[in-house]
Amino acid sequence: MKISQKDVENVARLARLTLESENLQVMTSQMDAILGYVDKLNELDTDGIEPMAHAVPMSNAFRQDEIQPAIGIERALQNAPAFGDNCFKVPKVIE
Fold first, then answer.
1. Hey, which residues does 84 pair with through a beta bridge?
2. Which of 71, 76, 7, 70 shows the shortest CA–CA distance to 35?
3. What local confidence, expressed as pLDDT, does residue 41 receive?
4. Residue 43 burial (CB < 10 Å; 0-12/13-18/19+)?
5. Across the chain, how many H-helices and E-strands are there?
């Protein structure tokens, strides 16, 4: 095993998760399988391969910034569940 049950307990504690013993054993074997797969990927020869952000070549997907007229208050509020005084009304969350 590449990861011990104690390591999984530590990760669970850091993530503020409470794991029962049977879940801890399952999680340990699953994490071990993940680490085994990553270790297998480390065996690949990646010399001469440039890192990439996308699997297919992409050009800049962002549009140019252009000044456009505002959509207006009425249109901005037309789908709001509640509005008044030209503002969105939201439930109070702080008492």
1. 87
2. 7
3. 86
4. exposed
5. 3, 2
Q: State in words which class domain 5-42 has.
A: mainly alpha
- The pair of three-digit structure tokens given for residue 19, joined into one six-digit string: 């794991």
Domain ranges of the chain: 5-42
pLDDT in tens, 6-60: 999 999 999 999 989 889 999 999 999 999 998 898 888 989 888 888 888 877 7
8, 28 contact by CB (below 8 A): yes
Q: Whole-model pTM above 0.90?
A: no
Answer whether 77's CB lies under 8 Å from 88's CB: yes
Residue 4 per-residue DSSP state: -
Can you give the pLDDT at residue 78? 93
> Is the Cβ–Cβ distance between 35 and 11 less than 8 Å?
no
